[in-house]
Amino acid sequence: MKVLFMTNMPSPYRVDFFNELGKSCDLTVMFERDRDYSRDTRYVADQYKNFKVEFLKGFALGDAEAFCPGVIRLLSKKKFDHIIVGNYYSPTGMLAIEYMCLMHIPYILSSDGGMIKEDRGFKYKLKKHFIGSASSWLSTGRMTTDYLAYYGADREKTTVYPFTSLWKKDILDKPLTMNEKNTIRQRLGMTENKIVISVGQFIHRKGYDVLLKASERLNKNIGVYIIGGTPIEEYLQMKEELNLRRVHFVDFMNKQALAEYYKAADLFVLPTREDIWGLVVNEAMAYALPVITTTKCIAGLEMVENGVDGYIIESEDYLELANKSNYILSQDSQMMCENALLKAREYTIESMAKVHYETLCKIIKSKEQDK
After folding, report:
1. 328 vs 3, 192, 307, CA distance in Å?
2. Which residues of 236-260 are buried (b: 16+ CB within 10 A; e: fewer)?
3. Could you give the C-alpha distances from 44 to 82, 283, 332, in angstroms and in order?
4. Alpha carbon distance 140, 113 (integer Å)
5. If you average pLDDT over every residue of the chain, what do you get?
6. Block means of pLDDT (10 residues each) for the chain, length 371 residues?
């Protein structure tokens, strides 16, 4: 089975997924950029073990997309049993879709996530054309399926897959004991009794100003560690003005170093204003952390159940964020931690690749039956 997967750039979790999927099929992956230029230069992967790579040349647009006319040559030069378009929102993806529609080449549209925004007029018609023209769809869950259907996808031809950045081996067997956490905290220089962490870029969309406001109202024994790079001046000023001595900004770090912070923590918070998924939610739950995130985080809406493994709150509600954080950290959260692990085990790279491969086989079988 020859498969072409089109995407924007080689982020580490995607490369891991492609390497796993490539064990089951003859996989070629097309990238339109070499990396996301808005992220730390270390956020890139180049271990292409089980798939062929096509890096297109084109005109850079923004930090992670490009317009690459060469995609037409790729599509016309080689024949594939399946073409999966993951970059349908980029100019290169749109050009590829236009060409495939013109040449009557079926394609599968893959979406990491999406939220309905009640588009109207030309913008709605444009999205409906590029999304609705696919022959099948791959979705990360209920919210994404609703989004795709709003723009013309057939629910009967939409398959839900577990979206993740984690291998099965990355998920803890059981929650860490307090002694184990304290050993790690001593190594990291953490002095607070309870630890909240958040991981993400220091940009407005992630909502760290909301977390800073909430931190002012957290119980006195709680430390907050925000990990993701160099904080912007606004956050530094807020920390100073609000006298947030127990808030710590931590630089970007690799997966192995970041694991220590997850293991040391008691709670994970993502106060995002918009995340079409939010893979850090998967990561936190894999380390047995209860999660508080917002109604604007699709990973949270799919994975977090209120009172079971965390809470979902409104994105700007710093008072509720403080209240829920204080509540979780003042209780015995052992059951929440165990429930978080159970949920994380449903989302592995192995199962993600397996669902993709089974879907591709099912589509081929259906085509053969229709002949």
Report:
1. 46, 16, 9
2. eebbeeeebebbbbbebbeeeebbe
3. 26, 18, 39
4. 6
5. 93
6. 94 93 97 72 70 91 83 91 94 96 96 85 91 96 95 96 96 97 97 97 95 96 95 94 96 91 98 95 98 97 97 97 97 96 98 97 81 60
Q: How many residues does the chain have?
A: 371
pLDDT at 148: 96
Residue 39: partners with Cβ closer than 8 Å, 6 or more residues away: 63, 201
pLDDT of residue 39: 61
Q: Which tokens in the block code for residue 327?
A: 């509540």
Place of tokens 């993400």: 200
Other C-beta atoms lying within 10 Å of the C-beta of residue 343? 20
How far is residue 254's CA from residue 250's CA, in Å, rounded to a whole number? 12
